[in-house]
Amino acid sequence: MARSDGSGSREVPRIVILGGGFGGAYCALALERILDRLDPPATDRLMAGHGMRYRGEVPFDIFLVNSENYLVYQPMLAEVVSGNVGIEDTVGPLRRLLRRSHIYVREVESVDLDAGTVTLAPGIRPRPHVLGFDQLVVAVGSVSDFRGMPGLPEHALRFKTLADAVNLRNHVIHVLEQAAIESDPQLRRELLSFVVAGGGFSGTEVVAELNDFVRRWTRDQATLRDDEPRVVLVHSGERVLDRELTPGLSEYATDLLARRGVEIRLGARLQSATPATAVLADGSRIPTRTLVSTVPSSPNPLIEGVGLTTERGRVVCDAHLGAIGRANVWAVGDCAFVPGPDGAGSPPTAQHAVRQAKVLAENIVRALRAAPLKPYTFGGLGKLGSLGHHRAVAELPGGVHLSGRTAWLLWRTIYWWKLPGFDRKMRVGLSWLSDLIVGGNPVNLNLGRVQGVEQEHFEPGEYVFRQGDRGDGLYMVVRGTAEVRSGVGADETLLATLGPGEFFGEMALLGDGVRNASVCCAEPLDLLFIPRSDFAALLDRLPKMRESIEQVADARRERAEPEAYRGASAGGSEG
Amino acid sequence: MARSDGSGSREVPRIVILGGGFGGAYCALALERILDRLDPPATDRLMAGHGMRYRGEVPFDIFLVNSENYLVYQPMLAEVVSGNVGIEDTVGPLRRLLRRSHIYVREVESVDLDAGTVTLAPGIRPRPHVLGFDQLVVAVGSVSDFRGMPGLPEHALRFKTLADAVNLRNHVIHVLEQAAIESDPQLRRELLSFVVAGGGFSGTEVVAELNDFVRRWTRDQATLRDDEPRVVLVHSGERVLDRELTPGLSEYATDLLARRGVEIRLGARLQSATPATAVLADGSRIPTRTLVSTVPSSPNPLIEGVGLTTERGRVVCDAHLGAIGRANVWAVGDCAFVPGPDGAGSPPTAQHAVRQAKVLAENIVRALRAAPLKPYTFGGLGKLGSLGHHRAVAELPGGVHLSGRTAWLLWRTIYWWKLPGFDRKMRVGLSWLSDLIVGGNPVNLNLGRVQGVEQEHFEPGEYVFRQGDRGDGLYMVVRGTAEVRSGVGADETLLATLGPGEFFGEMALLGDGVRNASVCCAEPLDLLFIPRSDFAALLDRLPKMRESIEQVADARRERAEPEAYRGASAGGSEG
User: Fold this and answer.
1) Which of A4, A371, A533, B162 is the most exposed place for a label (fewest CB within 10 A)?
2) Across the interface, which of A104, A437, A443 has its CB nearest the CB of B181?
3) What is the pTM of this model?
4) Which residue from A96, A437, A501 is facing B426, i.e. has the nearest CB?
5) Least Cα separation, residue B103 to chain A (angstroms)
6) How large is the ipTM?
7) Domains and CATH numbers, chain A
8) Could you read off the pLDDT of A272-314 as tens digits, one per residue?
9) From CA A134, how far away is CA A328, in angstroms rounded?
């Protein structure tokens, strides 16, 4: 395949880094610093009295590929939910951080190790872009992986990227706004229940910030009672953060969250989800419209196709961070399996990613010069977790344990200090200052998300829609069976049962827009939902489709009127 | 229709305000202040030594309906583009501003004046909500109206709401990112051209901020030359802002923008748009991937169906801001036609909306008490327009004209002073401070927008896609004819011509994903685009549809192979 890369000189080796998280971005940064030492940037040299501009002796070119143009400052993401930091303050533009690297804001499609090429997904024009490499750094991180958990891909909110954090925030504000004007007690309860699955650092931080935000909101609203909101943390362990911290600190965190009103379900696991329910492994159901899952996280599936030796999806590295069996391929961060002295890999934390990145940058340069490589040795680093509300827990090297306000101050200071760049420090500092003075900013930053064709999952006994609802789209059965029922409450009678490949809800779209039957299910049900607007556009343009849908609708209307209804009021049928 | 409103007491009259822009929000605020005078809030009374809590004597309830939970501070929206103010700083949460009003974050579906009800679109559950009123305030503002301008609804970016501003910013960052790595000179030119239509306050502010942002970005990037970006302002008048300001100031603004590198097309009008072109009324075409249209703006179409007397879509009011012919209906702001002494209506500006809102609030209360109403008299208010880069123009009452840095300082100070609430003043102040110190924050805040079924428009000679492109969806012809061509450049041969109802692009979706023919048009062409993912989901579930599409694909394949190709390489056909 021809290389279509447009920039960078071909006389010097090319280092291509896939991923702009902590591992990838800090590796590029460390490589830039090595370049700076060899060839100081123009301004520095002028100041130092060097007059001659550097010409063509750059020992390597750095290329960084990332799907976003920024580095996400993960530990602060949870604060976006409560609005304590501005949305843009939790990320740093890669171009500001990296002045000497070529930055490609694209998705990676595939990697060909033998050809030495990476194929990037199309940008504006629908043509892929091929980038050649001499040295390749795999730093693609991990992804939320909901496979095998029915309904989670469709109905659980993720918490990994900036978009996830903003979407969660928008969603929470939306349900709170709707709850304030909702008179139906059942729906009101669902709207005011918030479930977070996973009691690791990420889940704990999210539930703490969410709890603070929801309770602050409720306190300000005359139409919501303080005891109405329910915030639940579902965790499989014995205590919150029990895998991350010492028993003492873990207990402190658990107690603190419970005192603040978080309902903690220990030894529990999330099993499936529907639009209005979180279902746990023990069969219990929590009615909720807001389910956040911070588990499980697994290595980026891109790695599977590359042909490297992997260990549970992560690239197996030697002590020098080189991928096993490939001289010019390296891995760093959450997607790398770097065996420590005890044989276990380093934990997938930002601290390790940043430290690995520095060693890796040096090793790549050593490899280019055929110099001996440096091993990555990971020691005991500190652990910090925020618990919201100006409280945190910290486990420092040397057995020092902190909790409460002191730990929180330490947390803030350390993370603030580590923020890349002066401008980011400045912005976040000012943002925190204004937060201390005036509090958060509860604005629903909905950017007019388009609703497309999507899947939905329902558990036994749940309703897809009810008679009298507005028809907002058409459904097709993918798995399971749907029961079409007419009438309300005790008068409900079964009209029909629909299986895979059959559709319902078409009557409300062809007719006056109101559902004239209810649809529920007796077994788990997966549906494909086509929104009204897409459906209308398709019907208008696809005569064959309109025809076949109208045939079904007519048949149902005929069947329904003479017999199935027997004394029911209106002449309606399925949906 | 039954009233389904859940909150508010029914003993007192209900004032329902539709719209939370300047007119609506400030009307609610003025009404709250009247309530405060009658019945001070608890904290004030405690401080003043009043011990007794107020009981049930509230003379009215305020309901405000708005599709967002915030008031947009319109004059600052353009600064979102350059990142000079934080995204959330340009809006104020309505619940913070309005402490005594019932806020409904919903769309308005319809109004029944005789029944005294407003129907709100469904929220989370697909059921509409009916709200009764005794007094109704119509404050629904104006909307971008691209009807009758081919391609504008599909391809022009709007600039009216916060979502519009953030989307424009994201889009601009996206094209700049892609331009930096694009080697094709034609596409690079399109990516680096930015067109704004409309030289009023809004268009001028947008083009000024956009120009600043793009030039600052280019200066920082090694792979972009400073002379590459092209920023064009298309305006039908003789000078920029010639309808808003005196000739002197208007000339100053025109010169300033031109000096900063904005290409100003005067006496020109935008006529149509395609994905890669802005077409002007004189037939000239500007190749661009970024077209912003700030004209035309027309009153909210909701008004048409209400049954009020209108003048070019706006509600005709008497001098007291009451709708003609309806004793309990009022209008305010951009959607109201309030005749002045010369018979013309007040201009649709925030200043008028805010002043009208105060008079209106008082008149509603007077009407409730059967007291005589107050007329709205609009005098000469000042005019202010920002030109980016710390420059502005101002026309003050008494014939005082200012321009340049002084006007800009005045502009900032006045708007800052007018920001509702202390916390907003604080936040925006800090944001401006950090902007002065560290500059903007070029982060593409893409929230994972889902691509759904959408329309596209093409002008004669343009390509929908080219042979070799990646197939990202299926197209259906809505209007016009599409030409399917095989081969590249001089070897291009016409394979087929497709008309309304026919589709193309299916081969790339059923096959290996690469377009094996090009599609262009000889007359204006409107298409319906179905993205790959939606298409795949539908094909899997709708056997009838798959069947008919495969039939067409087979027929095309057969037809293409023996004859149409005659010596062409691969055995492909349409798309």
Assistant:
1) A371
2) A104
3) 0.86
4) A437
5) 8
6) 0.83
7) 14-67+106-143+299-368 (3.50.50.60), 152-295+383-438 (3.50.50.100), 454-564 (2.60.120.10)
8) 999 999 999 999 999 999 999 997 778 888 998 899 999 989 9
9) 7
